[in-house]
Amino acid sequence: MAIGRAPKSDSVVRALQIIETVADLGIGTTARDIAERLDLPSASTYRLLNSLVADEFLVRTADLRGFAIGARLASFVDGVATPPVPARAAERLDDFRGSVRFAVHLLYFRPASVRVLDADPDHPLDGVGELMRYLHASAAGKLLLASLSQWRDVLELPLVPVTPATIIDPARLEEQIVEIRRTDVAVDDGELVVHHAHLAVPIYDVNGAVRGAVMIGGVSSRLEAICSLTDAARGLANTVGPLLF
């Protein structure tokens, strides 16, 4: 052993390999998938998985059969891998912000979470932590859910009431998901932040995949005015999408 170097901990290495496997195989990766890929005994696999879930590096899917990357790990990745906003996209975003009286934020989507790409400097984005963690509580989060074929698998049940207006009935949420898929627009009204409303439209990449959202927000009493900007928001999303992704 080299002088001054401590021996590697097998458990730490195995835990990192498990995280890597879940990231590679995606949402719903099972303990059996992990054990087979890493040639691990089932008992060791479950012990490490339970530890990673307890520390929020991984989360269980809604059916409790599989796993996905957790919020804690996603926040680490986000801290070092936030996509840059190209100058041309920033110019168009600034022009749009100057033409409206509401907050305009750019968001990007990770496999099971929402992240802030460019927050409006003149209108602080409240509830950022809840936005990232509780997809069912925000317009952008519901937009991400609607883009996923297995959207139920990324939700933790029971659904958490972030505010008194947050939708926590899975059946009601499903109705909204269906409507969002039909209209390509999502709204929350007091569900993420009390007395505040948001509208979100998708940002597509060059291959037609949903990669993020333009989200416009303001006080709930101005929701109608916010929704009147839907077409303009879509125009911005269509403009910046090819520049961002």
Task: Write a concise keyword list for the protein shown above.
10 helices; Arc Repressor Mutant, subunit A; Beta-Lactamase; two-stranded antiparallel sheet; 2 domains
Short account of what is shown:
The chain contains ten helices and seven strands. It is α+β, with helices and mostly antiparallel strands.
Write a structural description.
By secondary structure, the protein is an alpha+beta fold. It folds into two domains: 11-76, Winged helix-like DNA-binding domain superfamily/Winged helix DNA-binding domain (Arc Repressor Mutant, subunit A), CATH 1.10.10; 84-243, Beta-Lactamase, CATH 3.30.450.40. It is built from ten helices and seven strands. The chain has helices at 10-25, 31-38, 42-54, 71-81, 87-99, 128-133, 139-147, 170-183, 223-227, 230-244, and strands at 58-60, 67-69, 103-110, 113-118, 186-189, 196-204, 210-219. It has a five-stranded antiparallel beta sheet, with helices on both faces. The protein has a two-stranded antiparallel ribbon with strand order 1-2. A hairpin with a 6-residue loop joins strand 1 (58-60) and strand 2. Helix 1 crosses helix 3 (42-54) and helix 5 packs antiparallel against helix 10 (230-244). The longest helix is centred in the first third of the chain and has 16 residues, at 10-25. It is globular and about 60 Å long. It starts with 9 loop residues before the first helix and ends with a helix. It holds the Pfam family IclR_C. GO terms for molecular function: DNA binding; DNA-binding transcription factor activity.
